[in-house]
Write a structure and sequence with these properties.
Shape: extended
Number of helices: 6
Structural class: alpha+beta
Strand content: 25-35%
Strand order of the largest sheet: 1-4-3-2-5
Length: 198
Amino acid sequence: MGSFSYPSAELDELLDCYLHGYVSSRMMRLARENVEGLPVCIAATKCDGLVLSLTPFSHSYNYRSAVLFGYASPVDDVEEKLWAMELITNSVVPGRWQNTRTPPDGAELASTTILKVKIASGSGKIREGEPHDDKKDLDRSDITQKVWTGVVPMWETLGGPIASSSNRFSEKPESIHAFADRVNKENESYAQKATRDP
């Protein structure tokens, strides 16, 4: 998410979503053919825990989810295309664009399509906390004394970097280690906090 026109825009301001893909893929082709922009839906979900209750009917997940609806159009301006490629690359690992061979060569630029999605609407939902069982089950000691309830936190964990067989760079990538450590701590902390009702 970002704004090429206003790079300093914050999350509470109007942002575009940039997607990338192979130039001849179906989605990129359809976006080029649709003058008003290809209608798209972008969805993302992150699970933070398994919520185990007294009955299977009440089991759930702790999660964060978002859905965006908008219109995707190819980015033709080379300056904006490079800006979007940097934005996408740095969303994987901060600062990665500056630590790679850039800019992309002509063949790489020609084989990659960047779509700018103008967001029309969106929604988000978060589920946090403990199981919420029905009173009819909570009042039954024959159930509550034999069924464990609670939350099993879950979080994504990044491992340490492993050099490729073609790697010739001898220094340890401390920035990547630090990034992985930070993400792991943030993910675990959020999942642990999400086990309790807000």
